[in-house]
Amino acid sequence: MRVMFWSAVFPPSIGGVQTMASQLLRAMRKRGHEFLVITERERPDLPIDDSFEGIPVYRLPVAAALGNPERLAKVRKEVVRLKRTFDPDLLHTAAVSANDLFQLLTLTAHPTPWLVSLLGAWPRSCDAFVRRTLENADWVVACSDSMLELGRDLAPAISSHSSVIYNAQEPPSVPPSPLGFHPPVLLCLGRLSREKGVDVALAAFAHVVSRVPQARLIVAGDGPERSALESQARELGVDRVVQFRGWVGPEDVPELINTAAVAIVPSRDDAFPLVGLQMAVMRRPTVATRVGGIPELIVDHETGILVKKEDPQAMADAVVELLESPDRARRMGEAARRRAMEVFGFEKYVAAYDELYRRLARSSREGS
What domain count does the chain have? Predict the structure, then answer.
């Protein structure tokens, strides 16, 4: 089956969506699917025609075309050419983005079933565009029940042709190590942007250190908030016990997680954080905010502890609770790994998409 895969972000860009997209495409190709990736040309040094592990990648100047009728028409023409040349059996959009404008503009150029995956929230100012995208899709997949509810609230018409496929990731080759508490290391991993709430984690950590002086915090990741976060650590007086690691490659993440006793996911909003799943697979108990799809990933006081968002004191209390009860923390970590393997297994995730791909393509052939 030929699949035209649309994603606003794709390797070499880094992030959760990019990681999941690349892993899904690798696995689906093993099941006999052929892909062409359409993505944003984020930097001028990136080639237009490229490849990712043998999968063709075509980068379009989507952002530059918006608001420019001449460029818009040129990109639209190129999308039509790609559709007719590749002749896909299915179109799959990973996360709603401006790329979908060109799918909407070329719906009749090459009629093909369209699958949209909702992997995160969108600005409310984009509601009308997102609604139109969802209503034109043949099927909508959400990465969590919370995300599906958000999509159905915006576009009730999709209720009969939408479902949940939870995020997943390939099992790491590195086995989880036992939790260590000498010293107790906390880990906050992810993009350093406001919605991830790392500033709240730093504020919470200042409370933790006042009660557990030997505690250490690793902040791994990069993003627009890094400078402000480093300044915050200095202002809080914890800069000597906070290490900013910068971006960590996917292949090095499991080893990094193995250095931690407790993970922190302080998101202000999150559809279904891949990092929370990574921590669970590596047998780490997680203190996280009760937002978006996180409560579907973490069972409160069984696989981790959930707290209100924007509440550093509550987050600190939960972390200290685990640091002062190592045996309980270890039991939570074990439960987190079991649940991750049973409920959010990678093969289950791939099989669900494989079945949906084939069903949509089959329905299209039978209806033609």
Answer: 2
